[in-house]
Automatic annotation (TrEMBL):
Organism superkingdom: Archaea
Name by which UniProt lists this protein: Type 2 DNA topoisomerase 6 subunit A
CDD domains found in the cross-reference section: TOPRIM_TopoIIB_SPO
Binding site for Mg(2+): 200, 252
Listed GO MF terms: ATP binding; DNA binding; DNA topoisomerase type II (double strand cut, ATP-hydrolyzing) activity; magnesium ion binding
NCBIfam families, A to Z: PRK04342.1-1
EC number: 5.6.2.2
Active-site annotation: 102 (o-(5'-phospho-dna)-tyrosine intermediate)
Domain (Spo11/DNA topoisomerase VI subunit A N-terminal) ranges: 74-139
Cofactor or coenzyme needed: Mg(2+)
BP term (GO), one: DNA topological change
Amino acid sequence: MSADDINYGEGDARERLLALAEQFYEQFETGDVPQLQVPTRTKSNIEYDEDSDVWVYGDRHSTRSAKTVSGAQKLLKATYTIDFLAQQLDEDRSSTLRELYYLSESWDLDEAQFNDQDESNQLVEDLEIVSGATREDFHMRPEESGATLMGPLLLREQTRRGEREIHCQEDVGEGGYQIPNNPDQIEFLECDADFVLAVETGGMRDRLVENGFDEEHNAMVVHLKGQPARATRRITKRLHDELDLPVTVFTDGDPWSYRIYGSVAYGSIKSAHLSEYLATPQARFIGVQPEDIVEYDLPTDPLSDSDINALESELEDPRFQTDYWEEQIELQLDIEKKSEQQALASHGLDFVTDTYLPERLEAMDIL
């Protein structure tokens, strides 16, 4: 059974989940061995869609079949999980991914319980793919990501206590507005921002806010908090698509940070089934660039063997096969150095907000 086999029309997430379970019963009634097909979630089955500029799953599938004991257990766990999620939606409640893992220990069959949280997380992803819904539609939450927004944006948020309007500068403290698990519940009311600056580290985000960068340049500062959570990528995409705001991504100058940019712009292997929902292909990288390390003589650390391997891998990665990225990566491999955002402070605490970012933004025709 694949997503194409399910005819649920425009039904909600609960109906889609129950349609999956119904397929199992129909297979039993017709004498077929119950099975579930999901795309193989490996790097070898990820394709770069040049039309949409995002990562998507290829044609290879894995089959969860009751022909084997392990396959039957996976379908059993899927059925129990569907039952739990359907009841949760019926009661208009929510839970975290961590709670689902622990809650399974109360299920009446030992075989239905999860061995670890990775297993339960993967099953929720399977259900997303085959149902065409998202875990947010299931009312499933990750642990708090803590990612925030700061900037000239008035929004309306739907909460359990009703609607509330929040201005992401005037109505929040220095910490900013915390991005909710499901940003699609937010309505944008008024926006005076000119662009989005998505920032990797908390230290740099705090420096920008303390220096008033968001106010001076009408910027929406999004704290990515390292590898960004789905909610962070979703609201960044909405800010671009719905408010027509250019998106820039400001990270450390190392290969792992370039992949953070890649996940914002093009999606990731783990969530390739949601790339068109989460990714912002128009996002542009603003730094720290390898050429910045040379030009500004930034404090650095030497590249490790894993850094070098990652950079060489990125040279073969379709996301980075542009003249710009090939030039930057080759330069970094040549100088054998990497640098952090905070290294810009070697030129003074105001250098990043008074000089570096304004010059980069002007060169990108954003300021």
